[in-house]
Structures are given as C-alpha cells and as structure tokens.
Amino acid sequence: xxxxxxxxxxxxxxxxxxxxxxxxxxxxLETIISLDDKRRELIKESEALKAERxxxxxxxxxxxxxxxxxxxxxxxxxxxxxxNNLEEELQDKLAALPNIPADDVVAGGKENNxxxxxxxxxxxxxxxxxxxxxxxxxxxxxxxxxxxKMSGSGFWCYxxxxxxxxxALLSYFIAYHTSNNYQFLIPPFLLTEKSAYTSGHLxxxxxxxxxxxxxxxxxxxxxxxxxxxxxxxxxPSDKLPLKYFAYSPCFRREAGSYRQxxxxxxxxxxxxxxxxFIFCKPEDSWNLFDELVKHTEALVDGLGLHYQVSKxxxxxxxxxxxxxxxxxxxLPSMGIYKEVSSISNALDYQARRGHTRFKNKxxxxxxxxxxxxxxxxxxxxxxxxxxxxxxxxxxxKIPEVLRPYLPGAPEFIFPDNAKI
RNA sequence: GGAGAGGUGGCUGAGCGGCUGAAAGCGGCAGGUUGCUAACCUGUUAUAGGAGUUUUGCUUCUAUCCGGGGUUCGAAUCCCCGCCUCUCCGCCA
Length: 420
Hints:
This protein is an alpha+beta fold. The protein is built from twelve helices and 17 strands.
C-alpha cells in the first residue's frame, strides 16, 4: 500500500510514475485525495464532538447535562459511521493502487522487458533431442499418469531418481543459503485470509488459491508466509537486515491455463520452492536487491544451466513491487526461457500493509523495506536440467553440485527399462 | 468435539461504571552522587491519527487495556460474538 501522505505531497511525481504501469483511465489519484480531504473534515468534526463529551464525563454530570449528552452521543455515532464508511472507501481505493515503479524501471508491459544478463550458451545437440516429458518418461523419474489417477490433472509424482534429484536440488539450495547466513524457516502451509490480504495476494488471486472448509488457503508461495512473519512488529534496528529463506510446496489452481507451452512440469497445481526474504532498513534495500540477484545467479551457475536475467517493465511487475528481475532458464524443446526465480523489491509497500517497522536513531517507528526472491523454484529447473544435459544415449548428466546429495554420487541418470 | 481458566504498557502485575493512558515494581533513557564497579537519588519513559504553530521542536484534541458489536449521559470495568493461550476429558488414517 502506498502512503497517502506521500501521494498528497508528491501528486504529480506519483502520477507520472504510476502511469508507467497503469492505464491512464484507471488512475484517479484526485478522487483519492479528495476522499482524504473529506476524511480529515469528518475526523475534525467527530473529534470535536468527542472532546465535548469527554469534558463533561470527567465527573458525575447533573440531569440537564445527561440529557444534552444523550443527543450528543447520537451525533457522535452518526458522524463515526460516516467516517468509517469513508475510510473503508479510501482504503479500498488506496489498496488497489500498485507500488510506484523504481526510476530505472521502464514503462509498459511484457514487451518492454529487457534482458540484462545472459549466462552460458544454448546447448547444441547433434542427435534427436527429447523434451523433458519424454525424458522424464524414459528415465522413469516422473510419473504423470498415476499422479493424475490420484489427484487429477495438473499434478505429477516424483519417482526414484526423480524424487532424489528433487530433494538434492532443495538440499543444495538450503546449504547455499545457510552458508550465506540466511535463516531457514519451514512455515505452515495453510494461511488465513488476513495473511493473504497482507501479503497482497488477495483480493486479486482469490480464484487462484485452494481453500479449505476452515477458511484457510493453501500456500501459493512462501512469500505469503514470510511477508506476515513479522506482521505488527517493531523490529530491533540492530538486527536488521533480517535474512530468511523458507521451503514450502506451492499450491495453485492455475484455472484454465493449460497450453501446449506449459506441458509437463512447467505449470502445475503443486511445486516446491525455496524463497528468500529480507526485512531491511530503507537505505539498504537496493544493495540487498543486487545481492539477491547475485545469489539466484550463483545457484543456477552452480547447476551449469544456460539462462538469462530480465528486468521487467513496470506493467509486468506484480503490483506490490517497485522493481522485479526474472531469472529464466532455457528449455530447448520449447525454444524459450522459463522463469525459475523472480527477484523483487517492494520498498515499504508490503511493510505498510503488515505494519512491520523498526525504530530509527531518532526513536521514530519507520516501515522496513521488504525484498523477496525465489531461490529457487524446482519445477522448471528439473525440466531444464533434463533437457539441457541430455546425452545421445538417452541418459542425462547430473550437475556436479547435486551429486553429493545423491546416493552413490552418480554422474548420469540412465533410462529405466525395468520400471513398471 | 466437550468442560473450564485466562488475554491490561518493553516485562511482571493492580484496577471500584466517571477525576484511569492506566497504580506499583522491573527494565530502558538522561542527569546526580561516587577512587572504579555495584548500590543509591532525581527526572523521564507507548503507539497511531487530526488540528494549530513562531515548523524538525512545541501546544492541543481524538483513539487505543486481544478484535468486533452492544448497553450507558459515560466502559479496561457490564452484555454478546469472534480470535488466541492454558488445563482437563474425548477423538486421532
């Protein structure tokens, strides 16, 4: 959420910046400001009435005063109702505004995304290469059919070497983040509606979430959890920045999104992800943003995959974020790069919603900045590893960093002709 | 799922429907005392939002005792609903 005071004082700057990501006809800051003007008037009015009441309630009033206060009480109630309605309207309008894009974020949508870094080269195959679905089938690492039988479409079951490889990836990430002094959290995988609002995923993604009969929803990214971790807290300033990473499965309905381009594990209802999350002082957030980009790059470099990093245009960043970079791995069978990590700086936008603050030198409570980055989502890495590392004989070379986490530290996965 | 107990400032913990933003203690901060430390003494000590102002300080008002409603001229205090914590019983692939 943006700061109404900031908007009042920097109307033109804010407007210009927001237009980088919004349609002009959808941006109406003037209405918001005038609602706030009205809100201030009502506060003045209602507080004057209350002051009057408080003045005569300091001691026992006489009969006349009691009669007068009775009608005053009704006025107060009416004025409070007006104020509440108005505040709700203002909050809704304010909450619907996206974050102000950072200065170096260009205007427009996806088409203006800019590749800022490329690592490695597209692998070339002098044989008929397979896509990851075919590879997973012949290697016996993923069981799509039985997963569909158990859970319906959009799920898969890791099997044997596939399950071990998935676990190895997670272990590799965990070891990496731990060595960088990020603290490991395994959060609950169900969260309350309030938490989903605070994280900014509601109301927008209501239909994308799975809901339980207890009005809890399944975690769709642990960013939802981590953003709430220090909700309504004043963090000790000497403990900042607080660096966390969390593991969680992520559940998404992905209603109606199936396309040929998203076969296999590229998009599903459940996948594993490790998420980095930082709470920091405002002056540190852009340095930490760069740090997060470096960490995600280092993880993919370690796996030896070809990838690119894109800086997203304003319209393609999620609403809470001032700037986002995506790290995308190359999927040869599709001829495209697919996102495995999204690195974002929310500035104080999320913290304002969650009331996460710290005390600065002058004793003032200031909203922290929050950043998050996947580190990483496995469901597109495994396809990239299978496809980019496939050999002429149908085997797949296992990235060296993962071998220590696999029994016998194997160099290759071979087709499994004995599977049932 | 059933029965009960509870939730008050940074912490412990009082609290009678009105003079209680809230006693007392602890802690924190500033100062004093003091060879040093400890002890002691004095003062100070929440957050948010309005308004004013000689505008970075100060004045003033309002709200906040888990949250939301209600009763009342007036609620930390009484009533209802919810959330959370604890105890006991039941259930538990």
